[in-house]
Design goal:
The protein is an alpha+beta fold. Strands 2, 3, 5, 6, 7, 8, 9 and 10 form an eight-stranded antiparallel β-sheet that branches. The chain has a two-stranded antiparallel sheet with strand order 1-4. Helix 4 packs antiparallel against helix 7. The protein is globular and about 65 Å long. The longest helix has 17 residues. Among the domains are: about 80 residues, Apc35880, domain 1 (Alpha-Beta Plaits, 2-Layer Sandwich); about 40 residues, no CATH class. The chain has ten helices and ten strands. The chain starts with a strand and ends with a helix.
Length: about 240
């Protein structure tokens, strides 16, 4: 998230660079006081993400804007159902968890899933008008501790949670990313839609799912309107 320095013109080189980064970088003017610009970068590695930050700095973006917040995470897919199925198969075969046979089978399963879901693992910025980002945690250390819930129960709760999300397929694109060990929260959620009321309704309805109502904690919400990079100078004149 960036805040404009109204006394410094926006660098033409930075604008040209941002424009060239589509569709893996999205530019959003923010609604509210938390910032002026939200940049969303999707890259295949931390090194590539780091290079984007340095390239924008060299192009002069940070002479015009001050970074007021950031979030780093890696795209994750919800695999509770397939994980629960894998655990059941291993139990039926009598294979001990984390044994060499277990690790080999897990590696084969993950590789198949990685190939089948490559498009979801490496997303592009959708051509939608609005975006909403927020970080979240699963509760731990309280009376209701997500990390002590058995796998089968977690799989059931996440399945029920996902049913609400699927009702908004075609209206809201969701990108879920994990950040345990990388940032202050455990997950980040990006929502993209042409009607901002759609992700408002989606988030509201999901609050009633047990997995959210009992186990979820949420950080700040950031909402933005997607812009073409080349239009930024006229927006901040």
């Amino acid at each position: 998230m960036l805040r404009i320095d109204w006394g410094v013109p926006i660098s033409p080189d930075a604008i040209e660079l941002l424009a060239s980064m589509r569709p893996h970088t999205g530019v959003f003017t923010m609604v509210g006081h938390k910032g002026d610009i939200m940049l969303i970068h999707f890259r295949e590695s931390l090194e590539a993400l780091n290079q984007v930050e340095h390239a924008l700095g060299r192009a002069g973006l940070y002479s015009s804007f001050e970074v007021v917040d950031s979030y780093v995470s890696v795209v994750e897919l919800g695999l509770y159902e397939s994980t629960a199925k894998f655990y059941a198969e291993m139990r039926e075969k009598g294979i001990a968890p984390y044994s060499p046979e277990w690790d080999a089978a897990a590696g084969e399963t993950l590789e198949r899933q990685r190939k089948a879901m490559a498009v979801r693992l490496y997303p592009e910025i959708p051509d939608t008008k609005y975006a909403c980002f927020y970080p979240m945690d699963r509760k731990r250390g309280e009376q209701d501790n997500w990390y002590t819930v058995p796998m089968d129960t977690r799989a059931r709760l996440m399945h029920e949670h996902g049913l609400n999300g699927r009702r908004y397929a075609g209206k809201v694109k969701q990108v879920i990313s994990g950040s345990i060990g990388w940032d202050d929260w455990e997950w980040g959620v990006d929502l993209f839609a042409n009607d901002p009321l759609d992700f408002k309704r989606l988030i509201y309805e999901m609050r009633y799912d047990e997995v959210s109502a009992v186990y979820a904690e949420f950080g700040n919400f950031y909402v933005g309107v997607q812009q073409k990079a080349e239009d930024l100078p006229s927006l901040f004149e």
